[in-house]
Design goal:
Elements lengths: L16 H20 L7 E7 L5 H13 L3 E8 L2 H13 L5 E5 L12 E8 L2 H11 L4 E7 L15 H4 L2 H22 L2 E7 L10 E7 L6 H15 L5 H7 L4
Parallel strand pairs: 1-2, 1-4, 2-3, 4-5
Antiparallel strand pairs: 5-7, 6-7
Helix pairs in contact: 1-2, 4-8, 6-7
């Protein structure tokens, strides 16, 4: 009710039914990732949600951790728009929720010392790479990112001759750039000990982007050399010089 999803009698407002379904779908994804991770059994779970907006997702994760998974939630929503931070902070205060806070900032300005789960939906272009790198540095067990605005790779891409009949169309080249970018990100995460899925996701935001990178840390041995060879081969095939997450990882962290 505090977020405008239900009315005073706790009934779902009809205009919010789509968002309600989207929130529950996100929680399904979150739950599956949680149960596949080593977080099961921990007393407290630290979550940072970048681009928390009006807080629907952030409040839902806090509630799910506390009441469904019965762990102590330590959830922080990060949002650039100060008016939304004030709105969400006020709602959390009125509901007397502990372990839930909202701060003004973004992935470039906020760096938690430690986190278990990083959420970054629709971080534009290389901001997704900054978020993933931050999650790696913070030791996140789960990374949930919905990449947006894949601008970095497309200007670098050369059309392999065999694909020229397809990629000579600008819209196809753009779609290919998105797939190549997220495939490189997935390989880089795998090289750092994560199991990665790229799956369809219906966003809470009004956007045509509907892809999520879901990464869960594992403790199995990783053949980094083999993965790095695949990365190099993929870059060479398309003539890609550099990719932001790879560049950040080579800078020394983690």
């Amino acid at each position: 009710q505090a977020l405008g999803i239900t009315d005073t009698e706790h009934r779902l407002i009809p205009s919010m039914s789509r968002k309600w379904k989207q929130i529950n779908k996100f929680l399904d994804i979150f739950d599956a990732a949680y149960r596949a991770s080593c977080l099961s059994g921990r007393r407290a779970v630290r979550v940072v949600d970048f681009g928390s907006g009006k807080g629907y997702r952030t409040f839902a994760v806090h509630h799910y951790l506390k009441h469904t998974l019965q762990v102590e939630p330590q959830v922080t929503g990060i949002e650039l728009r100060s008016e939304l931070v004030r709105f969400c902070s006020g709602a959390a205060s009125r509901l007397a929720l502990t372990g839930l806070e909202f701060q003004t900032g973004d992935v470039r300005t906020h760096e938690p010392e430690r986190l278990d789960v990083l959420i970054a939906l629709h971080a534009c272009d290389t901001a997704t790479d900054l978020a993933l790198h931050l999650g790696l540095r913070g030791g996140a067990e789960i990374l949930l990112c919905a990449p947006c605005c894949h601008k970095e790779i497309r200007p670098q891409m050369q059309r392999p001759e065999v694909l020229d009949p397809v990629l000579r169309f600008g819209v196809h080249l753009g779609q290919e750039a998105e797939m190549v970018t997220d495939s490189l990100r997935a390989l880089l995460l795998e090289a750092n000990g994560y199991t990665v899925q790229v799956q369809e996701f219906v966003s809470l935001e009004h956007t045509s982007k509907n892809k999520m990178l879901l990464a869960v840390r594992h403790d199995r041995t990783v053949d980094r050399a083999a993965i790095e060879t695949r990365i190099a081969d993929l870059k060479a095939f398309y003539g890609i010089r550099e990719q932001q997450l790879e560049r950040l990882l080579k800078s020394g962290n983690p």
